[in-house]
UniProtKB/TrEMBL annotation:
<dbReference type="Pfam" id="PF07972">
    <property type="entry name" value="Flavodoxin_NdrI"/>
</dbReference>
<dbReference type="InterPro" id="IPR004465">
    <property type="entry name" value="RNR_NrdI"/>
</dbReference>
<dbReference type="InterPro" id="IPR029039">
    <property type="entry name" value="Flavoprotein-like_sf"/>
</dbReference>
<dbReference type="GO" id="GO:0010181">
    <property type="term" value="F:FMN binding"/>
</dbReference>
<protein>
    <submittedName>
        <fullName>Ribonucleotide reduction protein NrdI</fullName>
    </submittedName>
</protein>
Amino acid sequence: MTNTMGEYVAYDHNADYCMGIVGSGNRNFNIQFCLTARRYAERFDVPEIAEYELRGTDRDVSRVYQTMIKRAREYEDEQATAKK
């Protein structure tokens, strides 16, 4: 796992502001593809919202962006519901 990232998210209340995790990796590593992203999602109880391989493609950029927009809307709805 990327220790610096994990420490940053775990610090104080930072995890409360995490809307989701996007992972990247190399599919040659099979089960370990995006493993860190899956572990962070579980550890911080947030969804893993997207994955892409290596540097990604233009199509990945568009797909991940659209997924992030969707997740941001869901997060806003969750926050509004929690305040009621």
